[in-house]
Predict the 3D structure of the following.
Amino acid sequence: MRKLILYATLALALFGLPFIAYTAEEYVGDKKCKACHIKIHKKWLTLGHSTAFESLKPGVKPEVKKKANLDPQKDYTADASCIECHTTGNDVTRPGVQCEACHAPGKGYTQPTIMNKKKWKADPDKQRKLALEAGLVIAPDEAKCRTCHNEKSPTFKPFDFKARYEEIKHKK
Ligand code: HEC
Ligand code: HEC
Ligand code: HEC
Ligand code: HEC
């Protein structure tokens, strides 16, 4: 019994916390998602999330930077205090706020045995359950957004979840 409680506590510590640290190998990148979610990917390309890394380059958005006391001519693309929110998983090899920044790293849940059109059509409940078990976050909540949309951002605007969610939402 005591062992059981120990395992339960461990599981909660590992999987129950909002800030889970992932390893680089768990990410697949937005191009992988694009292969099957073309329409959603197309919409994402029109949003600031897809170009968030560009904003860190010198000469980009000079007015916004001046207002926020940032140097418009400075290159911030290697600045650790910027890339944590302007990349996916705090890594410049995954620039911008990609699919996996919100839906969690995809190596597990994008396996062909899970995200598979035929199988999903045949038994959506079973496939969804497998995807969730492999780490998929279907609808990231306000707390997830606020890991980046907070006062640590030099250009922070008060974050109204409902309104801002409407701007980025992508149904099939
Ligand atoms: C091999 C094709 C394939 C790849 C690659 C893929 N998906 Fe999917 N995904 C599907 C299919 C099929 C479904 C079933 C529902 C649908 O058609 O959208 C699905 C469903 C989903 C759902 C919704 C689950 C639900 O409850 O309806 C999310 C969220 C999702 N995928 C995110 C992603 C993300 C993020 C990536 C990249 C990391 C990705 N997918 C890569 C094929 C794929
Ligand atoms: C990994 C960090 C991160 C997460 C998580 C995140 N955002 Fe963002 N978001 C950003 C950054 C950075 C920008 C600014 C992009 C730019 O223009 O450089 C942004 C911009 C936006 C914008 C403006 C879009 C545009 O086209 O100009 C909206 C709306 C938004 N986010 C909503 C959300 C919502 C809603 C969530 C949660 C469901 C969320 N964000 C999660 C980092 C994040
Ligand atoms: C805590 C997360 C976070 C950090 C750290 C962060 N940003 Fe951002 N950044 C954001 C978010 C979120 C937005 C979107 C603002 C919004 O819509 O609320 C944003 C937007 C921007 C924009 C575009 C604003 C616009 O209106 O188009 C620029 C430029 C920018 N950030 C530069 C930087 C620079 C340079 C650094 C490092 C000195 C930095 N950011 C650090 C989260 C962050
Ligand atoms: C800023 C966070 C964020 C990013 C980035 C993001 N998503 Fe989503 N996604 C969401 C939210 C929130 C929902 C829930 C939508 C709803 O229920 O209205 C969602 C829903 C979905 C669904 C289910 C749609 C449905 O019809 O139910 C799929 C599939 C999906 N996202 C795929 C992707 C792919 C592929 C990318 C990258 C091109 C991506 N998402 C990028 C936040 C995000």
